[in-house]
């Protein structure tokens, strides 16, 4: 796991924003160490400094993730108004099958973050395009076996215990998502290529425009042409290709320094790049698949349509709010790695407190809104009163999940900044797959608690993981983490120079 740790210690924002970061980091460290100020004055000054840094980092990431998530969520909403079966099918396809490809592609694409960031920091601008192409080649190749999973999704879902009606409808939707696999394969390397140069706003603008087009085309295909689930899925795939093509056009027109055209060099060193990409995907996939299993297990309950519909609505809300936590996750990893690399243990520790408290406050607000609107939430997705009652029953579990998801991703970001990926991977396996899933299965089926029991048990796994990460973070010796981080960075710097020279 050393390669994964090294990979995440050098986040692109740290690389490309280093001169600015050093100035701000010194200001924060000085504020925390200024004994001429009272404790309350130091706290207010340091909090103001850190909040400005935090939200400049988190806001762009939140916007991009939210817009991309809304594109998928809007498709489920449109399908939900066609009927309960259509909502169940689209949610099972999106949350059960599509997340498999999303997790694998996003995880593997994360390798580009470090490599492009290193090349950009070393002024090896021509290497950014090579790394992006190399990652795209590997992700496109990975998309082929994933495509066969999509093609045979119906028998796979039936084998997993889904009803034939839901499996057939879901498979129809999944067939339309096959082009989306390869859109992911192109999108994530492009996205990381741009982020390595701190180019974030264009991606947000493109995602916003794609959402507008997507909403119009989905309405047209479903309500004017009557193409049903397959048409809705094809529009979703098309919308992702709009994002890919628009971002690539931006690269061709604006990134003259870092894009020098297609090169045969992209096919060199693919094996080492594959190992790095695979390692980068492990931690993310363990977490992504956990919630995917929640939907799949619920499909085996009596009256699976109502169970899946209610879980789909709650999962969609959870994933939407989760995008905010993902932005704070990115900010946490950047802030911690930045401060540790700069040799500022006080700033690193303080950044952890500020980002965790900020994310938790926001998640609590959403949890309260969920409880207040528990009887009305489902009507944004479907009109059935049975589904509304089921969602209302799940609302307390959803509210608790929202709060935990305001804390857990931030702590994972701290772990990435410190280089604890191997440890967190083991924690994820134990808490999610040894405790959470078996406990949820027992509560849901043995004790006949249904969807609420399944989710409650799996929520127990998330709670256990959060407590472990929180305990480890509280007990962290930040002076020691500074020494470890600087030692790793020195070793990686030597490897980076050697690799760049070899290229």
From TrEMBL:
Its main location: membrane. Residues 475-502 form a coiled coil. InterPro entries: MATE_euk, MATE_fam. It is a multi-pass membrane protein. The keyword Transmembrane applies. It holds the Pfam family MatE. The keyword Transmembrane helix applies. It is found in: Membrane. GO terms for cellular component: membrane. Keywords: Coiled coil, Membrane, Transmembrane, Transmembrane helix. The chain crosses the membrane at residues 53-77, 97-116, 137-160, 166-187, 199-221, 227-252, 273-298, 310-336, 348-374, 394-416, 423-447, 453-474. Belongs to the multi antimicrobial extrusion (MATE) (TC 2.A.66.1) family. NCBIfam families: matE. This is Protein DETOXIFICATION. The lineage of its organism: Eukaryota, Viridiplantae, Streptophyta, Embryophyta, Tracheophyta.
């Amino acid at each position: 796991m050393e390669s994964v740790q090294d990979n995440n210690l050098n986040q692109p924002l740290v690389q490309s924003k280093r001169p600015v970061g050093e100035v701000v980091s010194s200001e924060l460290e000085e504020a925390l160490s200024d004994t001429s100020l009272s404790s309350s004055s130091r706290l207010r000054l340091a909090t103001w400094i850190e909040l400005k840094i935090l939200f400049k980092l988190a806001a762009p990431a939140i916007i991009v993730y939210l817009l991309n998530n809304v594109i998928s969520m809007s498709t489920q909403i449109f399908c939900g108004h066609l009927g309960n079966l259509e909502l169940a099918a689209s949610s099972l396809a999106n949350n059960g099958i599509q997340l498999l490809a999303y997790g694998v592609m996003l995880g593997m694409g994360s390798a580009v973050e470090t490599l492009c960031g290193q090349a950009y920091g070393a002024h090896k601008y021509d290497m950014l395009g090579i790394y992006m192409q190399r990652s795209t080649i590997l992700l496109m190749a990975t998309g082929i076996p994933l495509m066969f999973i999509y093609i045979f999704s119906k028998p796979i879902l039936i084998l997993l215990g889904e009803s034939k009606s839901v499996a057939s409808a879901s498979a129809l939707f999944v067939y339309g998502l096959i082009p989306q696999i390869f859109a992911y394969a192109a999108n994530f390397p492009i996205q990381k290529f741009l982020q390595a140069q701190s180019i974030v706003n264009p991606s947000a603008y493109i995602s916003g425009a794609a959402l507008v087009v997507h909403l119009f085309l989905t309405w047209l295909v479903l309500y004017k042409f009557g193409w049903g689930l397959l048409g809705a899925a094809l529009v979703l795939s098309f919308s992702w290709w709009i994002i890919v093509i628009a971002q690539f056009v931006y690269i061709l027109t604006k990134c003259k320094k870092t894009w020098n055209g297609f090169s045969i060099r992209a096919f060199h060193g693919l094996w080492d790049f594959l190992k790095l990409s695979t390692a980068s995907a492990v931690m993310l996939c363990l977490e992504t698949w956990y919630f995917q299993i929640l939907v799949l297990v619920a499909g085996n309950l009596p009256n699976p349509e109502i169970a899946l519909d209610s879980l789909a609505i709650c999962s969609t809300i959870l994933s939407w709010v989760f995008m905010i936590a993902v932005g704070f996750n990115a900010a946490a990893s950047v802030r911690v790695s930045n401060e540790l690399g700069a040799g500022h243990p006080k700033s690193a520790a303080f950044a952890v407190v500020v980002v965790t408290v900020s994310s938790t406050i926001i998640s609590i607000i959403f949890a309260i809104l969920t409880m207040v609107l528990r009887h009305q939430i489902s009507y944004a997705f479907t009109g059935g009163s049975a589904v509304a009652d089921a969602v209302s029953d799940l609302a307390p579990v959803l509210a608790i999940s929202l709060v935990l998801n305001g804390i857990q991703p931030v702590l994972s970001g701290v772990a990435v900044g410190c280089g604890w990926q191997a440890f967190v991977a083991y924690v994820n396996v134990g808490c999610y797959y040894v405790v959470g899933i078996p406990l949820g299965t027992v509560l849901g089926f043995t004790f006949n608690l249904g969807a609420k029991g399944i989710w409650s048990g799996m929520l127990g796994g998330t709670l256990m993981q959060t407590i472990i990460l929180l305990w480890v973070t509280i007990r962290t010796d930040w002076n020691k983490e500074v020494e470890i981080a600087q030692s790793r960075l020195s070793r990686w710097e030597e490897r980076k120079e050697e690799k760049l020279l070899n290229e």
